[in-house]
Amino acid sequence: MELEKAEMRVKWGKQLEKQEGCPEKSKQLLDYYESQVMKRGGGLFKVPASEVDFADNYFDEKGEASYHTVSFIKFKSGKKDQATEFALKNYLPVSRSVVSSVIPMISIAGGWDHVVFKKMPNGIADPESDSISKTWSDEFIRQQSGKEKAAEAMKFWNNNLLQESMTEFAKALWKK
After folding, report:
1. φ and ψ at residue 22, rounded to 5 degrees
2. Which CATH number among 1.10.3720.10, 3.30.70.100, 3.30.2090.10, 3.90.226.10 corresponds to the domain 43-175?
3. Which range is least confidently modeled, 20-24, 42-46, 123-127?
4. Are 139 and 97 in contact (CB under 8 A)?
5. What letter would DSSP give residue 76?
6. Distance (Å, rounded) from C-alpha 145 to C-alpha 120?
């Protein structure tokens, strides 16, 4: 089976070179494709067992659709372990207080260090009405014991740990 896959990749590579006109253009296109895959969350992730809050749910194509915000997060070089600990200690409890389902995924390999799914309580109909920013901020301030400590924590996250982030929407099908 692996041999067949390798042979198919070689044939596909030759066809792409022919289509693009030369090996350099083919490589350039493949490099671009790979960079986009890495930007869009491709990779290998683990979900810490202690952090899974949907143990009775599993994927099912005929299940009920739910919608999530998906945050892709990249940390500064050498800061992944510290940032992971910070996020699980400071952000996850806040998110769990405000959102019904939060799934943190920690990268083993890939372009992003963390991917976090947060369920949108009202679905996709009006994403702006689903914004939990104010509620989340209020809960974060409460859990950090005041605005000043919350501001310090956010500043530390943004200035010392976070390199890049982006958020998208996702549809999931789950059976209960």
Report:
1. -170, 160
2. 3.30.70.100
3. 42-46
4. yes
5. P
6. 27
